[in-house]
Specification:
By secondary structure, the chain is of the alpha/beta class. It has two domains: 3-120 and 224-268, Periplasmic binding protein-like II (D-Maltodextrin-Binding Protein, domain 2, 3-Layer(aba) Sandwich); 121-223, D-Maltodextrin-Binding Protein, domain 2, CATH 3.40.190. It is built from ten helices and ten strands. The protein has helices at 3-11, 17-21, 60-72, 86-91, 106-109, 153-167, 181-189, 200-209, 236-252, 254-261, and strands at residues 37-42, 51-53, 56-58, 75-80, 97-103, 113-127, 145-149, 174-178, 195-199, 214-231. α3 packs across α9 (236-252) and α3 (60-72) runs antiparallel to α10. The chain is globular and about 55 Å long. Residues 1-23 have low confidence and may be disordered.
């Protein structure tokens, strides 16, 4: 069994994977919001995965879903919205899937099922020169202000650090919640925050796009974080078709080509 399907067994709701894995890459028989289209929700504010450039959606996830849709012989249809609205939109039947670099965690897995497609880590990002002397996600973060995306994994991480710091009597971590990752980076650049927690690919892009503004403090953390396409609970046929299409992309090389195009580290791949 390939690595993707092993992860699918653990991360998604119980599926008849043995039979499903052999299924054709097809959405025939799957009820979609609009026939012939795979309607997906995305919060286009998390570069390099999804963002808006010159008025158009772009990023790894946008290209990835386009390639998946071609495998599945449907047309991709994006609905851009705030991140906090993605799961309600899926549960309400407004979209077929969520394709928005959504980190898989137990709380979300209670609400939706996941088909994993990448594995990434996180960095602590600070202003160039590191004026507050932060050495990573350690005790030096105590008493500091950390900018995070509202409802994202970075908020959970910062709140966990706050609990740890206060338990040690080292001062609270002030969690500054903002609508998007770009807002978090802006608050850091303006000095309203002392640090922000950014995905490893996002940190690389920030350093490249804004040289001399940011630097990385300490080592990456939680390098085994999986991100996945979210589907409604129990949508086994849809999940199987998505998993088969991802496997086909890995086999024909298009998966690795997208990773290289968006300058993601090879370690993000779910395939050996």
């Amino acid at each position: 069994m390939n690595r993707l399907l092993r992860i699918l067994l653990l991360a998604a709701a119980p599926l008849a994977v043995c039979g499903a894995a052999a299924a054709a890459q097809s959405l025939d028989g799957v009820k979609l919001v609009e026939a012939g289209k795979l309607t997906y929700g995305v919060a286009a504010s998390f570069a390099p995965f999804e963002y808006v450039s010159e008025g158009k959606l772009t990023g790894f996830d946008i290209d990835f879903l386009q390639a998946l849709a071609e495998k599945l012989k449907v047309e991709p249809a994006a609905m851009n919205m705030e991140f906090k609205g993605l799961i309600p939109a899926l549960q309400g039947g407004r979209i077929d899937i969520i394709n928005s670099a959504m980190y898989i965690n137990p709380t979300r897995a209670e609400q939706v099922d996941f088909v994993p497609y990448l594995e990434i880590g996180n960095n602590v990002m600070v202003q160039t020169g590191n004026p507050k002397g932060i050495t990573g996600r350690d005790d030096t973060i105590c008493g500091k202000t950390v900018a995070v995306t509202l409802g994202g994994i970075s908020e959970s991480q910062a709140r966990a650090d706050n609990e740890r710091c206060q338990a040690k009597g080292l001062g609270e971590v002030k969690v500054l919640t903002l609508p998007t990752a770009q807002d978090s980076a802006l608050s850091l650049s303006q000095g309203r925050a002392d640090a922000n927690y950014e995905s490893t690919p996002g940190a690389v892009m920030a350093l490249e796009k804004m040289p001399g503004v940011f630097e990385i403090a300490g080592e990456p953390f939680e390098m085994d974080t999986q991100i996945g396409i979210a589907t409604p609970k129990g949508a086994t046929e849809l999940q199987a078709a998505l998993a088969a299409a991802i496997k086909a992309m890995a086999e024909d090389g298009s998966y690795d080509k997208l990773i290289a195009k968006w300058k993601l580290p090879p370690s993000v791949s779910l395939f050996d």
